[in-house]
Specification:
Rossmann fold, six-stranded parallel beta sheet, 2-hydroxy-3-oxopropionate reductase activity, 14 helices
Length: about 300
């Protein structure tokens, strides 16, 4: 496909990366992808993208490199070293890291990339798998205004609310706050579900009316069926929320912000992992409330 749109390399085709990269293809972008599992690369090719055999192969010709991997160690693994993005992308390329990582990792990445003439944005997202598929993600961005302006048309193919939050690392800081709010919100919903059920109330009716009032939320809208059906197939795994609660509690300590309730929920998330539930959706916080309330789960 020959057009004037920037050529895109996409690294990381997981639960989020696959549908997001496909939305770029639908928007007319030429996308070359690389990830560790061959079947995910095959899926991208089937959607009209191009498969790459390595990171170097994927990024060599790209105007924009987008990364979507689980955490800071993976971002560092794909960015640095002789086979990484910084050594193999062309000068002037724009690296948009959409992973959720520590703000400091993003700051360091931008500094190291600048030495290679590569511009960087941290652009983590909120909205989960459904938001990725529907291209309605909220995208919080850190970096330079000019780079944000250059990336905005592309980000508009992926999300609905796209905001520059400040310098490098700011996107990650806002994402950390997002994960704090989501975890506390899921925990509150989970406690309400157990309370309602033990009281013998019709749960479907109760959640419908609650969601129409001040207690309503995007979390409740998206997770209501998970609670009702005890369906914890992962849209966002407990393992990843555990990582994010580590990021937010650590970052908050560094700036002197107290997170009393966030700290408690971080421990509840950690306990779910310890009980073997790390691969379940974060709505499985319900399981920990059920265990605490005497149910055999």
């Amino acid at each position: 496909m020959s057009n004037n749109l920037p050529k895109v390399a996409w690294i990381g085709l997981g639960i989020m990366g696959s549908p997001m990269s496909e939305n770029l293809i639908k928007a007319g972008y030429s996308v070359t992808g690389y990830t560790l599992e061959q079947d995910k690369i095959d899926r991208l090719v089937a959607a009209g993208g191009t498969g790459a055999t390595s990171i170097a192969d994927a990024v060599g010709d790209a105007d924009v490199v987008i990364t979507m991997v689980p955490a800071s160690p993976q971002v560092e693994a794909i960015a640095y070293g002789p086979d990484g993005i910084l050594e193999n992308a062309k000068r002037g390329a724009l690296l948009v890291d959409m992973s959720s990582i520590t703000p400091q990792t993003s700051v360091d990445l931008a500094k190291n990339a600048a030495e290679k003439g590569i511009r960087v944005l941290d652009a983590p997202v909120s909205g989960g798998e459904a938001g990725a598929i529907e291209a309605v993600l909220s995208i919080m961005v850190g970096g330079e205004q000019a780079d944000f302006d250059a990336a905005k048309p592309l980000l508009e193919a992926l999300g609905k609310t796209i905001v520059l939050c400040g310098p490098h690392g700011s996107g990650q800081t806002v994402k950390a706050a997002n994960q704090l709010i989501v975890a506390v919100n899921i925990q509150a919903c989970a406690e309400a579900v157990v309370f309602l059920e033990k009281s013998g109330v019709d749960l479907t009716a109760a959640l419908d009316v609650l969601n129409g009032g001040l207690a309503g939320s995007t979390v409740l809208t998206r997770k209501k069926d998970n609670f009702l059906k005890r369906d914890f197939a992962p849209g966002f795994r407990i393992d990843l929320h555990h990582k994010d609660m580590g990021i937010v509690t650590d970052a908050a300590r560094n700036v002197g912000a107290a997170l009393p309730v966030g700290g408690v929920v971080a421990q509840l998330v950690a306990s779910l992992r310890a009980q073997g539930d790390g691969g379940l959706d974060h709505s499985a916080l319900l399981r920990s409330v059920e265990r605490l309330s005497g149910s055999q789960v």
